[in-house]
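Onboarding guide, step 5: your first structure request.
Type a short instruction followed by the sequence, for example:

Predict the 3D structure of this protein.
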Amino acid sequence: MIGNYFKIAFRSFRQHKLFTVINVIGLSIGISASLVIYLIVHYDLTFDKFHENGERIYRVVTNYTFNGSPNYNSGVTGPLALGVKNEVTGIEESAPFKTFGGQVLIPNGAKATIKFKGENGCIYADQSYFNLFKYKWLAGSAQNSLNNAHQVVLSLDQAKKYFPKLAIEQVLGKEIIYEDTIKTTVTGIIEGFKENTDFTFHDFVSLATLKLNKDSNPDQQDWGSTSSNSQLFIKLAKGTSVQHIEKQLNALLKKHHPPKPENKGTTQAFMLQPLADMHFNDRYYNYDIPIVSRDSLYGLITIAAFLLLLGCINFINLTTAQGSQRAKEIGIRKTLGSTRSQLIGQYLSETFLITVFAIMLAAAMIPVILKVFAGFMPSGLKVDFIHQPHISVFLILLAIVVSLLSGFYPAIVLSAYKPVQVLKNQAVGGKSKTRNAWMRKALTVTQFMIAQFFIMATIMVSKQIYYALHKDLGFKKEAIIYINTPWNDKNPGNKMVFLDKVRSIPQVELTALGGDIPSSNGWNSRNVTYRDGKKEIKSELQTKSGDENYIKVYKIKLLAGRNIQLSDSATGILINQTYTQFLGFKTPQQALGKFIDFNEKQKMQVVGVIGDFHQGSLHAPIKPMSIYPDYKWNFNTLHIALKPQTDNGNDWKKGIASIQKAWNEVYPGIDFESTFFDETIAKLYDAEQKFSTLLAWATGLCIFISCLGLLGLAIYTSNQRTKEIGVRKVLGASVTQIVALLSTELVWLILLAFVLITPVAWYAINQWMRNFADRTTISWWIFALSGAGMLLAAVFTSSFQTVKAAIANPVKSLRSE
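The system replies with structure tokens like these:
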């Protein structure tokens, strides 16, 4: 029986080659998208699922509020770990560690020391870390490898990197130097996690080493200072609630760091973040693995579902449209004794075969898709059908679901034909024809709704990104580079020497020394107080550092007062217009001369007011901010404005080469790195630009699948109406009139889809736009353009068949009459 089903299926495929190809291509696109998205979603959802009792493991994080404004820090205060160990109950294991990174030195005897730069997967840890997170030990043990100062444990991959020619046993006892001065000896080798994990650490220096080095750990006794580098993980005892532990942690904080009256409006609280939440919560720092938004994963799943649905709709439409061509076959089968269930089985088997062909084509396309979209794929994502059996399971389940979704309705419709009617050529008459036609129209409208939604979303996202990249942000961003000087340079005068050398370069227009660039992902802030004799206003004030040329390099407007000077380091600041308005001043001039209390000992006087500029991406609003010359602590970045390029276009290249030469003279042995400011601004919208590209691809595929199905329907419709077209031509109808006749229904379906989807798209776009504090308008032409574009694409696609049918010789279609 089953073999007969497949034999008939192959015969049907040969008879309807074009429709079979259309169905396979449509389904394969949806299936390939679903497979790729499944791989991404499965990859992200399996992070750190392998840890023993992982549901009881939490990270302690710190939440702040400053005058009602929330702030989040993934770290904790230095002494909390010891306090937890001595004073908190209900914890089975606690593991404090501190992250660090930078240059690693490997002494090489009489030869030159080997340097490894940018090693960021390093932590200070002790035995408790390895008691909480279980690694496989290849040499040494968790009990004794990190007990003493100046010990280090390496991952196997890192050991091979540092000592490529040595066996594991030979690596033990080797010396490694961290942060230029911290000498350690290798006491253990572990095998890194093979599963997906956010714990990508590979150098584990003993925590006792950090405690001896006060310069690297100045806040280990300060309950009021929080660093994101200071991490604390705990495992709750069985039966212990999260609320119970959080209550004890905050009681401990209140005991050792009681709130002060002058800090009214500022709160600090410890919270427990589940281990499973780390990979998805962008409020908190997450080491070297990018944080993934759950909303992004849900968006990918939605895209895959829509593409798959479009392929299924094509199949349903084309199969039911062809029903009349197989009507006599159905009638004969029923006459010979076939039951309806057998006919349903026949058509489902045909659908299953087409789905299998589509899956085979999709699987063959996966390497190409992964290569094309390499920039969007997680770096650790791999495809191996042999060692990843879950992929095969997913494809089998997908084949079953798609077969049922695509084939069940056509099978029900076709198997319902009555033998008497089909053998009298009345299979498509009456109610059945009307019902099937309306179903096809409804599905076609659904296709066009999905396609137009994607078009509208793509245009709107692109419009917002263009707005963000071309908006006047309140500063100049073109032709500016910045260079970070070594933070641990033992000769602070070197930066001034470097500055003087750069200033003499012909291609350099202006230079400034200071701290962070005007707009970035990070910032510094402090709690300040303004008193006017009647009231005091406490607030969080962002701070940036720069000399008198800082606002000149970036062309930040000075609205009132004067520019800062180096002599202002202890007294004078610039504040932005937002802060003046927050303090209640109606004009910038009214803020001049007022004093802002940075702390009990430091009062800063407002010497000037600058125009607002965006300190970060347009997601966040402009916040109160100040600029002052903090040359003692925050003057490590050189900001350089380049002169305009001449006709040959090589000026900047020559200028940067000269800057690099000056750098090598002042900082020999240290790599030179310069960054264009406008590139940094563009990176603030990396996620949006990737999302826009994915939307564009999804839109293109939606349109392609919809038009593919439309072409199949146009071929079927024109074939069904061949004699009608011939009669109309004989009676004098022109080609234009016939094309219009065949296209009228299509146009009405597209217009109906446009009317139905526009309010839905507007609502969805409006919700997405709320992520931006500063956003472009949702213009009417976005919806008009998408509707017109879909209409044009559909008419153009169908015209291949409608024009062909309209210009055909009517004699050929009527001669049988």
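Each response can be followed by summary notes, for example: Residues 428-433 have pLDDT under 50 and may be disordered.
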